[in-house]
Amino acid sequence: MYIIKPTPEMKRHVPLLLMGGMMCCLSAVTYADEEHNHMTDEQPVMQMDASSAMQHQQHQSVPVRAELDHTPHNHHREHGGQMYQATSLENAWTVDDHGQGSASSKLKTWIGTDENKIFIKAHVEKAESQQTKTDAMALYSRSIADFWDVQVGARHQYQPEQQQDKSQWSAVVGVHGLAPYFFETEAYLYAGHDQRWQFSLETSRDVLFTQKWIAQPYFNADLVLNDQSKYAQKSGVSKLQTGAQIRYEINKKVMPFVDLAYAYHKGKKQTPWQMASGHEQGMLYAVGLTLKF
User: Fold this and answer.
1) For the chain, what percentages of helix, strand and coil (3-state, to nearest 5) are there?
2) Is the per-residue pLDDT at 17 higher than 80?
């Protein structure tokens, strides 16, 4: 261990060293205080700048919000006001048990909204060695419940084999909709001249084998409640047809099909203008094409 003895020169330099250390401490304290004051002065400026930026942004967003609030909105379209349209055309060639053939076309088209629609339905049939028969309806359809519409309109029938009253008009009222288990159903009541009161029912359902092959069992019936016309039909179940149509959907617009059905026709009653006829029944075989637009 060594002991260093202070020399006269070291004693002279000690006060200078002490004074230098004190000056360094004072300088450090002064610098720290100035830095603190500088930061304190900048903080309100930064807060003021941030506040000004927020206010400026709010002032800019007000016109945009006001512009959005004044943008017109089409509520009519949200509440079922959008227009839709659909058309289907079914062409078929049918042969009965006796080999008698007939060509037929069925047109169904409608246009309207979810609540209000206009329907046009037409059926044209031309049997071999006979003239062409037509049946057309124009209906106004109004939605009354989910999947159900009430319909009113007029029906026109043209029967060329009759010598008189070839054109017949009837008032129509009925319902159209989707019955339980997805049976599409149409039921109509007809009122015409000569106390002609008739009722018709058509119902069918799609059964999917695959996405392309679909079977459609169906049931159609015409009921004569009263008929005092010159070419009256017998009262009761005048016509009945039930069967199944199997179609192949090439796409959603082109669908060829085959049809196998049982048909019953009660016949005509005796009047001064026609002879009575008995009932007819048998199988019907058809092939055709359905087009949808």
Assistant:
1) 25, 50, 25
2) no
